[in-house]
User: What shape does this take?
Amino acid sequence: MLATLRAHLYVIAFGPRHNIHCFPMSTSYVRSVRIYHNNLWARYKGVIFSKIFANSARCGVSTAFIQVGETSIDRKGLGGADRSYHQYPYKLMFPQSYEKIPPYKLITSLSADLIRNPSDLVVLPGYHLPEYWAMLLICILRRRKRAVFCDSTALDREKSRWKEKAKAFFFRRCDGFFCYGTRSKEYVASYGIDPQKIYAGCQAAALAHDYDAAAIRAYYASKSFNVADSLKFLYVGRLAEEKGLFDLLDAFCRVRKQEPSATLDLVGSGTLEQALRERARQLKVESAVAFLGTKTPEDIGRLLMSSAAMILPSRREPWGLVVNEALSFGCPVVVSDICGCVPELVRDGITGYAFPAGDVDALTKAMMAASLLSKNRDEVANRCMDVIAKFTPEHAAAEILRGCVSILNTPQ
Assistant: This one.
């Protein structure tokens, strides 16, 4: 009987709107999954967790969500946690920035939460901090299955030998992995992990609540995009060192020499703002560069729809969810090849262009090419939206649920 129940346990399929469908399962076999995440600020995790919670019962599991901190220091300038994206029950352990929580409190609180709340599967938020190692140890000692979120890629950060050995030790003691995309899946597999334990595509952008893909397609079909806007470039994100923003200003200066009416909008805040303003003055492009500060998702959507391209020149970027946002609004992208999203989302001449990270000449050429691409914005916008249609919160939630059930069904 048990074999029959397992055989008919679970199927996920996608309907016309990518709804998650699971075969019903006997309530006596419902198993518990406890998912930990480092901070509530991440709207994209909010929309994915909401879909997981809405569909978990139909997949034969019960889910509990623990948000450790409210935000993180490097994202605080981008605005507080928007709880409207978190439509599921969750426990917030510390109503402050993750980095301000003393390490001993993180270790003791997370360990105590794990011990007090037994579950069949624990999903860890990462592998690079002492508290995550403490959680792994407890899972091993209490014989609980464990999975881990991993967004890193081989190109993301410089590697050190002892860290690589520690990471391999950690990974080999996990039962499953939830990755952003192809590059992160290949990265985990490079540590000798069975690819069947790795579930990719576990990311999606948190778009404005009133987002309507059909309305956006209709907007472009009506030829509302002004050809003059094909000389407007946009960056969205933190003003931080790893984002390659000095490269962007240098490239924009070269673009201006070819197209004097070109403009650049920078959305976001961060520690580099004053240095970037000074660099714009040195390049004599300050009148064409606008620092717009933090914007709402609705504001960002409007900016994307009136820009030639969204530029992400990062020197380090595990994925780049802003690329998901740009394509969702029909805006082509120019993205450094270091970004994890490049294989899936950046298709040269179709959704935009990739360029070698740090190569200002290549970035300049890619921006000019994107400007020409946007002159036929209706066609380009539809191609962008067709590509990103496969990267929805529903799809990400389905992949995570599929992984949870598979991990639970695999003998320990």
Q: What stands out?
A: The CA atoms of residues 169 and 273 lie 40 Å apart. The longest helix spans residues 393-409.
